[in-house]
Amino acid sequence: MAETPAELWANLAAGRHCIREVPADRWAAGTHHDPAGVRGSYSKWAGLPHGR
């Protein structure tokens, strides 16, 4: 949730939790997510730039 390195560091310094579920319009996590990691991804969560 940061567009610039300065925003990233500000988030870290403030202790902000910026991990969120991958938006469906960015990546069909339900299609690729596999908790066991057999089919592909281990996670449907990511640290993404704000608004993406």
Description:
This protein has 52 residues and is an alpha+beta fold. It has one domain. Helix content is 27%, strand content 12%. It has two helices and two strands, in the order αβαβ. It has a two-stranded antiparallel sheet with strand order 1-2. The longest helix is centred in the N-terminal third of the chain and has 10 residues, at 5-14. The termini are close together. The model has no long low-confidence stretch (mean pLDDT 77).
Kindly report the average pLDDT value. Answer: 77
The coarse silhouette is elongated
Count the beta strands.
2
How many structural domains does the protein architecture include?
1
Distance between the termini: 9 Å
Helix content: 25-40%
Strand order of the largest sheet: 1-2
Largest sheet: 2 strands, antiparallel
